[in-house]
TrEMBL record:
Name of the featured protein: Olfactomedin like 3
Family of this protein: Belongs to the OLFML3 family.
Chief localisation class: secreted
Pfam families in alphabetical order: OLF
Covalent S-S links between cysteines: 122-304
Keyword Transmembrane helix set for record: no
Localization terms from the record: Secreted
Superkingdom field: Eukaryota
Residue intervals of the Olfactomedin-like domain: 121-377
Residues making up the signal peptide according to the UniProt record: 1-21
Length: 381
């Protein structure tokens, strides 16, 4: 008999004899006790099932976390192996061919101080520094930062210090300016360490200076991260090219005419020397002894075939270009403008001219500075 039927019989039960009422109440109690027992069993089973389900869920989650962690570790290891393979290729053997070196030096000396035949119609020279912008302070007191002097890339290349083997690459100026740490930068570990601050990025290649006995110019492909060429610089008994930068022996520079090397030797120890460099073969095409003194010089760059040397002045926080040597002879030194750089901190450890942007990227006591140039025709100076 169901519970609802029992409720319907209550009016009739009230008129029934006491014995029947007693039997009915006992029946109802038995049914209620049975229902309570079933409900208790259901609660026990539900609790047990819930506990088992929760334990199973935790086991599955633990297994998934372990599997995901293992997969992440495998993926990370694969990326690290790929990175090591690309960043650290087997270094090529760079041998010094003394006979070839002597031949190149003899050829360059034969053309020493010859008048230069220009490759372009560039006839501009610097009239003044139009503007100055201090980007940030990054890294050591001495270093180098630059863009590709011959390409359209917006990447920023940073060489921190005067002796290292790691180059930082920021995708754009914005990332370099906004972030103080190097975590936003890609890193290239070079097969050979560089020395000084005279390096250059030109046409997708990094040209940097290595010292292992004689100084070498290393040509490094930034795309596939391999050394594609190297050459011993054909100058004997080299000395620091700038009096205020004892760590730089060769300053590589680029302008509208191509690639240049600024250096100094004991043979002509008071003045700075200049050489035209073939960017493809690294051969020295021509060499010049300039009248620009090394003493108190802190940096130099080339504009339209004219060497500009910057010197530390007695004026507070200023330097100026007070020696200009034009290899084509179209700009006599006495007609060149004295260009003042409103230097703010210490001494420039590097000054890189960008022919595409007509500005100089300078490293001043750990501060990265941009000098925008005002240009004029040589005949108007």
């Amino acid at each position: 008999m169901g519970p609802w039927r029992c409720l319907l019989l209550l009016p009739l039960l009230a008129a029934a004899p006491r014995a029947q009422q007693q039997q009915f109440m006992e029946y109802v109690e038995r049914r209620l006790a049975l229902l309570e027992e079933r409900i208790a069993q259901w609660h026990d089973q539900s609790s047990r099932y819930s506990t088992e389900l929760r334990d199973f869920k935790n086991q599955v989650l633990g297994m998934l976390e372990t599997a995901e962690g293992a997969a992440a570790r495998v993926d990370r290891l694969e990326r690290e192996v790929d990175y090591l393979e690309t960043q650290n290729p087997a270094p090529p053997c760079v041998e010094v061919d003394e006979v070839l070196m002597e031949k190149q030096a003899a050829t360059a000396k034969q053309r020493k101080n010859e008048k230069y035949t220009k490759l372009t119609d560039c006839s501009d020279t610097i009239a003044s520094v139009r503007a100055m912008k201090i980007l940030k302070r990054f890294g050591s007191s001495a270093g180098l930062w630059t863009k590709d002097a011959a390409g359209s890339s917006e990447k920023i290349y940073v060489f921190d210090g005067t002796a290292n083997d790691t180059v930082y690459i920021f995708p754009r100026m914005r990332e370099f300016t906004l972030f103080s740490a190097t975590r936003r930068a890609a890193r290239i570990k070079l097969p050979y360490p560089w020395v000084g601050t005279g390096h250059l990025v030109y046409g997708g290649y990094l040209y940097y200076i290595r010292q292992q006995g004689p100084f070498q110019v290393i040509k490094f492909d930034l795309a596939n991260k391999t050394v594609v060429d190297s050459s011993v610089f054909p100058a004997e008994e080299q000395i620091p090219v700038f009096g205020l930068s004892p760590f730089t022996y060769i300053e590589l520079a680029a302008d509208e005419e191509g690639l240049w090397a600024i250096y100094a030797t004991k043979e002509n120890e008071k003045n700075i020397c200049l050489a035209k460099l073939d960017p493809d073969s690294l051969d020295i095409e021509q060499m010049w002894d300039t009248p620009c003194p090394r003493e108190n010089a802190e940096g130099a760059f080339v504009v339209c075939g004219a060497l500009h040397v910057a010197y530390n002045t007695r004026l507070p926080s200023r330097s100026r270009v007070q020696c200009v040597f034009d290899v084509s002879g179209t700009l006599p030194p006495e007609e060149a403008s004295l260009v003042y750089f409103p230097k703010r901190y210490g001494s420039h450890s590097s000054m890189k001219y960008s022919p595409r942007e007509r500005q100089v990227y300078a490293w001043d006591d750990g501060y990265q500075i941009i000098y925008r140039m005002e240009m004029k025709k040589k005949l108007e100076v």
